[in-house]
Amino acid sequence: MRGNDLPKVCVVGLGYIGLPTAAVIARSGMQVHGVDVTQSVVDTINRGEIHIEEVDLDGLVQGVVQRGLLKASTTVAPADVFVIAVPTPFSKDGSHAPDISYVLAAAENVAEVLKVGDTIILESTSPVSTTEQMRDMIAAKRPDLRMPGLCDGTPDVAIAYCPERVLPGKILEELTNNDRSIGGITPRCARKALSFYKRFVRGTCVTTDARSAEMTKLVENAYRDVNIAFANELSVISDAMDLDVWEVIKLANRHPRVNILTPGPGVGGHCIAVDPWFIVHGAPNESPLIRTARGVNDGKIHHVIARAQALVEANPKAKIACLGLAFKANIDDLRESPARMVAATLAREYGERVQVVEPYIPELPAEFTGTGAGHVDIDTALEECDIMIVLVDHDIFKSVPLEERAAKHVYDTRGIWPDQPSHQPAQPVELRKAG
Ligand code: SAJ
């Protein structure tokens, strides 16, 4: 491929990151071959439809599929640039060790079609050294190709790490506008990847080495986790001292150099609750703060359950509305969601008394089956329930005016109804651990 030719791109993994990335690349005119292991995902995309909820993604995918710029398949095809965006979950042994087997499997498939001049970019959040491990795996599979960092002179392929840092709900906007850290196995690899991202990224693209870029991604999410843990710890302290945490944070944030984040029922999603552990796993003795922050945020879930139980038990006849299951506002994603854990615990304990409001999903997840809990809209919940437990700050919940909830018993874990009279529940008699 020569200087100004548009590269052909193969995106491996068509999930929350891979599909929007593939669509944005295709929108810039490049031919994209998307790969996913799930046939139904491939079929959905090839119909011009999407299998995930994300603002404006449906129209974009429909457009690029119709124009023939994006095609999906279950197998990797030859390309000039390969972008790998597959999951990096925890290991199945129950530890917090990262499992990079999906990355290595994707790279193994790419290795089969790799040719001289190609660029491979890993975007999946990965523990430090994963890009090098990926390179070593490809080197073993393709001894005919000269690998960066393992040969003298110009290698045959370029390998780089470039983490995504987009926010669900704003993915398309942030994919193009955010700055990117591009870490090459060698500086030449970084330059090759840079020339690719320059074609569709408007933010500044900064080059570095692969290990620094891997760590940067983990650090960004650990930074946020630690700061949310501070807010969550403050909320628990405020409960113990009978203070209104929202008032305290609002006042403290008037200081020009203080910016405390927002407490909630815990930290969810597949990034912030996971990535800090990759640092802890890599340097267990050197990361007490990051480890403790994880513990504080996970512990907040049990605190919320205990306070909700105390409120329910103080009102033995009242029906209970759990507002929200998603891991954050205005999305359908329930992964690692503290709201879901709280609601499911209450549903198991109080059965038919519980009504769950989650407008972003068609039906309640499996763990609610057989509990007797219902799935209703916000209006039904307001009519039927006297206890309102706010777990997610969806806009539709925020819009409920005071007159419709003034008489309710409210436990607002997100602080969306600051005008609610006495919007925290009475101090629980005994805080019980979640069952
Ligand atoms: N949360 C709070 N209080 C806050 C902010 C967030 O309780 O003040 C909770 C949310 O409710 C949610 C969780 O934290 O349960 C995570 O939400 P989030 O909006 O902070 O982040 P994610 O997981 O949607 O996306 C993060 C982002 N990382 C950073 O902001 C450093 C995003 O930029 C990354 O691309 C993404 O992780 C990722 O893919 O790694």
Structure description:
Strand 4 (81-84), helix 4 (101-113) and strand 5 (119-122) form a beta-alpha-beta unit. 40% of the residues lie in helices and 12% in strands. The strands form two sheets. It has an eight-stranded mixed beta sheet, with helices on both faces. Strands 11-10-9-12-13 form a five-stranded parallel beta sheet, with helices on both faces. The protein folds into two domains: 9-203, 3-Layer(aba) Sandwich (Rossmann fold); 220-412, NAD(P)-binding Rossmann-like Domain (Rossmann fold), CATH 3.40.50.720. Helix 8 crosses helix 10 and helix 10 packs across helix 11 (288-314). The protein is an alpha/beta fold and 435 residues long. The protein starts with 8 loop residues before the first strand and ends in a 23-residue tail after the last strand. Mean pLDDT is 95; it is low at 423-435. The structure holds ligand SAJ.
